[in-house]
Amino acid sequence: MTAMNRPPPITVTDAAVSRAVHLISVADTPVAGIRIGIESGGCSGFAYKVEYAEEAGKFEDVVETGGVKFFVDPMAVMYLLGSELDYQETKMESSFVFTNPNETGRCGCGESFSAVPNQPSDADAQ
User: Are 6 and 44 in contact (CB under 8 A)?
Assistant: First the structure.
């Protein structure tokens, strides 16, 4: 498989798409989609980041589903490969939730995580 036709770095559930559609519809300014990334922080090392994207960034992967563009920060791809983005609501909270096979741990409050970068296999490069 070549880089041009490789699978998307993340998958997005219908619930996450539905929430993104709603968030984009109520944005104060025009947005192109939702940007997904990670940032250093928390007691476990990294925190997921979900924010409005006014335009595509340089070298970002774009996952388009349900009419929504999800822009994946190129610095986060190695940590997010194979992840699923979902949206969940409970009586006490609502949020985007990541199921990430690269996680090696989470802090007690669930706000941060640790992970090892996913390295593409030789089969992925073919």
Answer: no
Q: Are 68 and 20 in contact (CB under 8 A)?
A: yes
Residue with tokens 């880089």: 3
Superfamily of structural domain 3-125:
HesB-like domain (2.60.300.12)
Half-sphere exposure of 22 (CA within 13 A, CB side): 7
Of 41-45, 80-84, 97-101, highest mean pLDDT: 80-84
For the chain, which residues make up each domain, given as ranges? Answer: 3-125
Average pLDDT value for residue range 81-91: 94
Other beta carbons less than 10 A from residue 70's beta carbon: 26
Q: Report pTM.
A: 0.81
* Six token digits for residue 110: 């669930």
* CA torsion through residues 10, 13, 19, 24, sign: positive
